[in-house]
Amino acid sequence: MPPAAPDSLYLCLDQGGHASRALVFDANGRVVARSVRDVHTQHPHAGWVEHDPEELVESIQAAAADAVHQLGAAAERLHRAGLATQRSSIVCWDKHTGAALSPVLSWQDRRAHAWLERFAGEADNIRRLTGLRLSPHYGASKLRWCLEHLPEVAAAQQTHRLAFGPLASFLIFRLVEERTFAVDSSNAARTMLLNLAHLDWDPTLLSLFDIPPSALPRCVPTCHAYGTLALKGARVPLAVATGDQSAALFAYGEPLPGNAYINVGTGAFVQRLVPEARTVDSLLTGVVAQCGDRVDYVLEGTINGAGAAIEWAMHELKLDKGPRELGAWLMRDADVPLFLNGIGGLGAPYWIGDFPSRFVGEGESWQQLIAVIESIVFLIQRNIELMRSEAVLEKVFVSGGLAAYDGLCQRVADLSGLGVVRPGEGEATARGTAFLLAQRPVLWPTPAGERVFAPRVNAPLRRRYQAWWRAMDAAISSIPMARS
Question: Residue 2 has what pLDDT?
């Protein structure tokens, strides 16, 4: 990428499960324009989670146009744009017209869970090649499901018009003038089809899942000339594409291997940098950035039920004011029940695709909601413990919508015994994208408003954590279920 002028601006597009965001950052990582468009999520059947692909395209275009409009004359200083998306979501489309042929199957979608069980004997080899567990959350089983169940997709494959792949590849194709058919390595890695050593589609896995390689986008680096975004008032080169959690790792500058980075939104994702791709029991290995000859790898623990679990609990408990009161409830010194959290499938370190969630113990509705929050904290702690077994951890950085709750951050600090840093700018995905667009500057100022949560002695919380751990182990050992 050509060098940027000191007054350059960076347009960062963040397509998430609840909204599409467009933020413009200056060279010091400050937000100078921001626009958000909500998007809808459909649940046609149990375990199915979908979005309308046209709505996602339109929401990004609208948010981007609004952000550019806010800049006024300063829009001339837009130097580059970047796109971050939900990593394991997929979509099918017509490579001639660009028309979507399927819904967006969300990363949360588990419709192909039963079909995927036939490959259990290949799980170790899949993990060795991809760094992933055999799971319906990833793209391979979703792509296969579309080929087998959507006539429009099968017909497009017969006539050589089919394109499919990660959501990022569809959005790139639709947003840039050149109709580029490509996908970055961090999004491709979440298909369960990418060879992590070669950073390209793996022929063995394509054959195993019967995925036609001609329909898949070309694998390219994170930092790449993807094409030109044509927006009202500006034409901007799209120079970075990445996954949402991958981008969040870079929000506050170069990540350090001694830190754990937690982004808590619809799901919660715990990452720590490692020097090379390697297999660690119960954790994932992933690529988060590929720029030039440099490739950054992480260990990752995924928790599927974070914000999604709170939404579930709000509905089940018939709480209409939970989000408004949750902060105060979290600060109460009260005993609460336990929650065994399998919302969206139980992720790291258990990896059980269909785990029945339940409360253990009694409590009022607000106490049960706190139990759901604590289940997220407990799962985060389990993953921190696994990462600590690899090397010493010094501190934790936390971001995402749920990180706004002091009570959640303090519980992570109390259980881990580590200082938890919550930076002032919560838009970690967009800010990390801006950092990559700025070519990873040595000086990337910390946003104002940072808060550090120092660990405290919290014996009741630790007792609940130990009780939760025992209850999880008992539930897993007593109920026959397939691991994902």
Answer: 66
